[in-house]
Specification:
The protein has 6 helices and 7 strands, in the order E-H-E-H-E-H-E-H-H-E-H-E-E. It has 187 residues and is α/β, with parallel strands linked by helices. Strands 3-2-4-5-1-6-7 form a 7-stranded mixed beta sheet, with helices on both faces. Helix 2 links the parallel strand 2 and strand 3 (67-70). The relative contact order is 0.23.
């Protein structure tokens, strides 16, 4: 998959898409083309055997060119500490981080604000992955609806703070930001 952002200088890139859309693979390839010093900030926690296997597979797919730091809750602090010139940081993913926050009963609005504040002050390049969850059916439970709503707010805040946003669908990336604004012609 060819990175789209070759001609655009970006300090931070948000990569969004549905589950299994290819967004993490795209983000990984984008980051690997950036720097030899690579740090993967993981938000997943191995809560069961299936998730532990998934985490192990992802770690193996990244290979030895990556160092991994786990930040299931304190993502803003971990990112602020990790980002520096000459190092690419890949955050995967905001969706699991949000789930962790909700299950820990933390102040989500405050956590999002802190994360966005860190994004604005990063001292090195960062690629961030998040799921786009709002395009499906309305969740049947209050928790599911709250999660969907918070994920939408988090994605909007991260998109506003990042220099670039790419959506990946069916393995195909489309750059959303920066994007030309259509000129509306008056007759």
């Amino acid at each position: 998959m060819e990175p789209l952002l070759e001609s655009v200088a970006c300090r931070s890139v948000l990569v969004i898409g549905a589950a299994r859309s290819g967004k993490s693979r795209y983000a990984l390839e984008l980051a690997e083309g950036t720097a030899a010093d690579r740090l993967y900030l993981a938000t997943a926690e191995p809560g069961d055997a299936e998730m532990a296997d998934r985490i192990a597979r992802h770690r193996a797919e990244r290979g030895s060119g990556w160092r991994t730091c786990e930040a299931p809750l304190e993502l803003a602090a971990a990112l602020a500490e990790a980002a520096r010139p000459g190092r690419i940081v890949l955050v995967d993913c905001l969706t699991l981080w949000l789930s962790n926050l909700m299950m820990s009963d933390l102040n989500i609005e405050m956590q999002i604000t802190g994360f966005v504040d860190v994004l604005a002050e990063l001292s090195g390049p960062t690629v961030i992955v998040a799921n786009e969850v709002g395009a499906g059916i309305v969740p049947a439970t209050p928790l599911g609806r709250a999660f969907r709503d918070w994920q939408g707010r988090l994605n909007q805040a991260a998109a506003a703070a990042c220099d670039a946003v790419v959506v990946v669908q069916a393995g195909l990336p489309t750059q959303l930001k920066p994007a030309p604004r259509p000129a509306i012609q008056l007759r």
